[in-house]
Records
---
Amino acid sequence: MKRFEASEYAARIKATRERMAKAGIDVLLVTCPQNMNYLTGYDGWSFYTHQIVALAQDAGPVWIGRAWDIACVRFTTDLPERDIVGYADEYVQATDRHEFDFVAETLRARGWGARRLGVEMDTYYYTARCHERLAAGLPDARFVDATSLVNWVRIVKSPQEIAYMEQAGRIADLSVEAAVEAIAPGVRACDAAAKVVAAQIAGTRDFGGDVPETIMMSSGSTSSAPHLAWTDDPYRAGEVTAMELGGCRHRYCVGLSRSVFLGKPPAKLGDLAKLMAEALSEAFEAVRPGALAEDIHRVWSGVIARQGYVKKARIGYSIGLDYPPDWGEHTASLRPGDKTVLQPGMTFHLVGGMREPEWGIQMTETFRVTDRGHASFSAVPRQLFVKPA
């Protein structure tokens, strides 16, 4: 089940330690599932209980988590037994003790209790109680905010990571094709969503996939809302369905969005779809090594401004290895003020959605920065898909 060569993990750890040194961190405590995966290969869906990977400048990485999940560590990583530490089930969701009491004890036993510890303060899986118990258990430690430290190491992808994202891109195309085929008057939205999820998991004859995150498939007036999933309502003639789908391969995600209209679309909606396609194309042409993240936003915004439109949200973000609840890497964004310099191997989801009070339209695509420009991970036509009512 190991997805990369040992040499690639070694390079990732080396790069992480270099960033730790610059930040004055002796031991990094990683709680993000994607960062744990990136450094060790660990791929267990055990993040509903507290777990960490501890990486010191001179030791580790060490996995510390629920003992019940040690088998997952053995199957997905090459960590030696001495660096796999499990806590008893009496810690799980208990009221009289906490998993990070055990983590603190383990760090003290390793001689790390009085070191400078980097913690991912602003993440989904490191709670206020986690930090409270860790600080109480390690009164001699000094804590450094290491939020996104590993994320910035991840932002430039290796050739093997790109290969997995190319496969995820093919699955993303299949998910959109499944949705377009399934959406029809009278069909329940949940039934169409089931076809999409089936396509995401089945993948191709050569490789299977996974569900990247919940899929967004809002229709009619609810299409004006950006983050609504499906319902069990039937599709109706004269309505648009705005979809944010995507593909996933070994947890490498590619976002892809298109929209479907049943019947003859209003002229305004058809014209906006063409404008979205034009904005995507021109923004992609601006992608090149040395460009800034904000440059892509400026080009995209300039295109829609020709027709009097303004979008106040960011129009993209770095994407790659991720777990729920989202697939963004929490690093660079395509928005004003982001001075991130684009480099070959960076990957972004360019989000081209526009919404009116009564409807919305989605047209997004994931790309990578190449030596000369960009390459899209998808081949689905940039258009509003129109089906007979």
---
Amino acid sequence: MLQTMVLQAPAKVNYRLDVLSRRPDGYHELRMVMQRINLCDQVTLRLLGTPGIRVLCDAPGVPDGEGNIAWKAAKALQDRSDFTGGIEIVIEKRIPAAAGLGGGSSDCAAVLLGLNELLGLGLSREQLMEIGVALGADVPFFIFQQTALAEGIGERLTPLSGLPSAWVVLVNPGVPVSTAWVYRNLQLTQGHDLATLPDSFADVRALCAILSNDLEQVTIPAFPVIAEIKNALLDYGAVGALMSGSGPTVFGLFSDEATAKAAGERLHSNRDWFVAVVETV
């Protein structure tokens, strides 16, 4: 039996985030266009001889034990196996935590995918996605491993093809934003007018025409720095800019590498912000 596996867990951005309604279970009905990017956490899985599940993470503030979604993923798969030893999960964080980039959900998905193989469980992708949605709404998307239209709470996924590749500049100002707080303060309007999504996009400019995030109406008034970053990205050559998820990370889409890297350098030198220049996957 293979004892160790190293996986890359990519971040995501939301090109579109429409909040349609509040559900009786407290979640919200969503419509999202989700895109992976090549900013990745590294997740190392090890099977051990002694029982127990251990999570080690190099990022401050990220829980190491049962409070970590990766621990819960390991427990869910161990409970489905006859493996009586231990599982060690080492997470090297490159994706900022609580940033609207899906880092925790991606780490969780990597654990599910990796342990399914390490433990020889043979679960289908659909079965893993079903386990994943109970752990976090974004987890199925990272198991799906394709650009997707995500509906429901994020678990109904339709692959999207024909989206152009783009250079992405990520900027995180380091302010704490609670996803629960954002959704709690969201004012839903009746009869949400859903824009029709094109079947294909000629270029990055056409892709930027669909950029929209309903959660900005809550987050930007409380954290004006998000609007400041959006404007700076556009000033430095981004074709479009948007807050990702519930924030506070903002991303700008660029047509070429040189403009993206120049923008990243200017933004990094101006403030003590997290800045990364990455590509879509």
